[in-house]
Write a structure and sequence with these properties.
Mean pLDDT: 76
Oligomer: single chain
Shape: elongated
Largest sheet: none
Helix content: over 70%
Order of helices and strands: HHH
Distance between the termini: 73 Å
Low-confidence stretches: none
Strand content: under 5%
């Protein structure tokens, strides 16, 4: 909070400096215009309304803060929606993996036809409140699955290479 107040003060000082420089430039331009064409520019002093007040600056900063909160809430809602989609993808991946495991079965057994799919077991999954944690966990699960597939393919290649050499 102190850092935000310091930033606001710094911004206010910079805005005041900019307003002062613009006022000086305006006065010089008016003097130049009056020198080449007398009476063409007014020599009025700067109005107080040209420099925003501290209250106005704070109000504008507050509005921007509220907009940031609204955007944050929208992003959180999107993340929750993605979490449910991610759960559906995970369940679908598990079903596909289970299907392929059933197709290959233990070696030496034969089957006449296809076995009816078994209903998925209902497992209690941990409740995750933070969508960032959910995303990290999903990424970890994908990484573990990718590593498992990588190792499986590598073992299969080694096995075929050994079979070819003998």
């Amino acid at each position: 909070m102190h850092e935000a107040i310091t930033d606001i003060r710094t911004a206010s000082e910079k805005a005041a400096r900019t307003a002062r420089l613009l006022t000086e430039a305006r006065a010089r331009f008016a003097a130049y215009s009056n020198r080449i064409a007398p009476g063409s520019a007014s020599d009025d002093e700067v109005q107080d309304t040209e420099m925003p007040s501290d209250e106005r600056l704070l109000d504008e900063a507050g509005r921007r803060g509220r907009k940031a909160d609204i955007i944050w809430r929208k992003q959180m809602q999107k993340a929750e929606d993605h979490e449910s989609t991610l759960k559906q993808v995970e369940d679908g991946g598990k079903a596909v993996l289970k299907y392929f495991r059933q197709q290959h079965g233990p070696s030496g057994t034969t089957s006449a036809g296809t076995a009816p799919p078994k209903p998925p077991q209902s497992q209690e999954r941990p409740q995750i409140d933070n969508p960032v944690t959910a995303a990290i966990m999903a990424t970890g699960a994908v990484a573990v699955a990718a590593k498992s597939v990588w190792n499986s393919v590598r073992k299969q290649r080694e096995k075929t290479r050994d079979d070819d050499q003998t």
